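Journal club prep — side note

Before the paper discussion, L.F. wants everyone to see what a predicted structure for a comparable chain looks like in token form. Sequence:
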Amino acid sequence: MHALTVTVFALLGAGLVVLELVGRRSGARIPTVGRLLRVAMHKRPALVLVVLTWWWFGWHFFVSGG
């Protein structure tokens, strides 16, 4: 089960990298990941979601030890 979780997160990370690369092309209509997070940080519910996501990610990968 742990391998499946790591695989899913790796795929999500790869998807973010692809979105970032697509967003950096000239004339792209898709915003970069940095721009999305910058906009999200100005809205409290999105900020709470980002903080909770980082907390969950850190707890499951760095504290619990798998």
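L.F.'s comment for the group: The mean pLDDT is 86. Keep this in mind when we get to the figures.
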